[in-house]
């Protein structure tokens, strides 16, 4: 499993547009083989930072999902929410390997 962590710098005056953007992407990730863990919006402290976390079974599964960007009309429409509203000022994506409750330890090769 691979988890994508997206760190956003958002325009706090456009938080409602960011929420619409986030809700749409949660649907798309879940529909196209991933599991969305949610968007995390400012609550206290910095008011211009938000996070999103979603997982795919493998990097190959993520790449199949990612190939739809700019092609699939639903993906294009979801990005229009972001681009048209200016709710996202910038973002960066990082991939992580989660350790989840109940997950087995990875097999180790002998040294």
From TrEMBL:
Pfam families, per database record: NIPSNAP (PF07978)
Domain of life: Bacteria
Sequence ranges assigned to domain NIPSNAP in this UniProt record: 7-98
Regions crossing the membrane: none
Record's protein name: NIPSNAP family protein
Species this protein is from: Streptomyces lichenis
High-level lineage: Bacteria, Bacillati, Actinomycetota, Actinomycetes, Kitasatosporales
């Amino acid at each position: 499993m691979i988890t994508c962590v997206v760190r956003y710098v958002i325009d706090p005056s456009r938080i409602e547009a960011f929420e619409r953007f986030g809700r749409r992407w949660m649907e798309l990730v879940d529909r196209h083989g991933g599991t969305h863990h949610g968007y995390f919006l400012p609550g206290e402290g910095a008011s211009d930072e938000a996070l999103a976390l979603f997982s795919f079974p493998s990097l190959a599964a993520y790449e199949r999902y990612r190939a739809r960007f700019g092609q699939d009309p639903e993906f294009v429409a979801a990005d229009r929410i972001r681009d048209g509203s200016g709710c996202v000022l910038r973002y960066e994506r990082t991939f992580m390997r989660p350790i989840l409750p109940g997950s087995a330890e990875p097999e180790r090769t002998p040294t």
